[in-house]
Amino acid sequence: MAEVLEWPMSGDKNEWRDMPQTPAKGRGRPIRVLIADDHRTFADALQVAIRLHTGISVVAVVHDGESAVAAAAAKKPDVVLMDSQMPRLDGIGATRRIKEVHPEARVIMLSAFEDDRSVARAIDAGAAGFLSKERPVKDVANSIKAAFRGEPLLDPAEVRRILKFLKKKRAEDVEAGGRVERLTARETEILQLMADGLAPERVAERLGISRHTLRTHVQNVLFKLKVHSKLEALALAIRFGKVRVGEPV
User: Fold this and answer.
1) What's the pLDDT score for residue 234?
2) I want to staple 84 with a disulfide (CB 3.0 to 4.6 A). Which of 17, 111, 185, 225 is the partner?
């Protein structure tokens, strides 16, 4: 049995570990699995449990998204078990990048919370399926084998529902982006100054307008963006690149 190796990433405590290889039993080679989860106890328990199943080999265990991408590029796993929430790069971002560097990998998203938005984001990023961390380990093993065979991990009706959700979400994003683009130069300038941290009186002073005029502009912004607060307006403007964070005051 090969020795367990430690490979430090970026000089910090995050690392990915080459795991001992399990010989293939019966015909064919074992399914190569990469585990990516920042909960080390859960990841180690999952690794031990999965290795008990015939025909599955855990080739690496990582604890952050950047390390997951690096390990996927180096180890070329067949299946990746990806935690949705991880440091340095979340599971959605890591899945997108893994599908770029190793498109053959089948990614199964793991999460303690399963909702339409999470599932939709995972599928949109290229994940083959989505599993709750509450599921028994045997279900995870069966999903690994099904993913390796190229079988769908979601019921067709579920897929249709998720695709409908994504279509609706994208339509909403297009509409929201259009509203942001309709902001005037002055309204955008006000939002930028707010993002820079200026108090209302300083924004008015900087622009040479009265506080009353400033309030009128802000109300117009809220109306155009269909939001109820300045914070929501800022978040939307930042999301669509109309306002930048970190600009000098």
Assistant:
1) 93
2) 111
Residue 236's nearest CA partner among 173, 164, 151 is 173
What is the C-alpha separation between 65 and 34, in angstroms, rounded? 12
- pLDDT of 105-151, one tens digit each? 999 998 876 667 777 788 888 898 888 887 777 788 888 999 999 88
Which pLDDT does position 134 carry in this prediction? 79
What is the DSSP track for the chain?
A: -PPPEEEESTTSS-EEEEPPPPPP-SSSPPEEEEEE-S-HHHHHHHHHHHHTSTTEEEEEEESSHHHHHHHHHHH--SEEEEESS-SSS-HHHHHHHHHHH-TTPEEEEEES---HHHHHHHHHHT-SEEEETTS-HHHHHHHHHHHHTT--SS-HHHHHHHHHHHHHHHHHHHHHHHHHHT--HHHHHHHHHHHTT--HHHHHHHHT--HHHHHHHHHHHHHHHT-SSHHHHHHHHHHTTSS-TT---
Residue range 155-172, pLDDT digits in tens:
566 667 777 777 788 888
CA dihedral of residues 156, 144, 61, 72 (deg, nearest 10): -70
pTM above 0.70, yes or no: no
C-alpha separations of 158 from 91, 96, 115, 119, 153 in Å: 21, 22, 12, 10, 10
179 Cβ neighbours under 8 A, 6+ residues apart: 224, 225, 226, 236
